[in-house]
Amino acid sequence: QVQLVESGGGLVQAGGSLSLSCAASGRTISSYAMAWFRRAPGKEREFVAAVIRTGGITNYAGSVKGRFTISRDNAKNTVYLQMNSLKPEDTAIYYCAAGSLHNWNYWGQGTQVTVSS
Prior knowledge:
Number of helices: 0
Number of strands: 11
Low-confidence stretches: none
Helix content: under 10%
Largest sheet: 7 strands, mixed
Shape: globular
Oligomer: single chain
Radius of gyration: 13 Å
Distance between the termini: 40 Å
Strand content: over 45%
């Protein structure tokens, strides 16, 4: 069992940056791919970014590619999402997930990101 806790959300102006963290406990995240998803008001949850177990390969949604960077520190059991050039449409609850690229078994409770125009 893996417990995930996100932090770092908040209110930021368009064009600004935020850095999210996802701290894991219970088991080491080195056994899992890790990902970030988000759910905007009135919309379905969508994939944002993922990183494989070793951190060598990442994948991004087209809407965030070039602006967001996912990274992981297995020694600290933590995953990060650096978000730059934020847009109002990035406003959402951001969730951390652990599992495999086709089956995300564990989820955090989410952290709110609000981007004002």
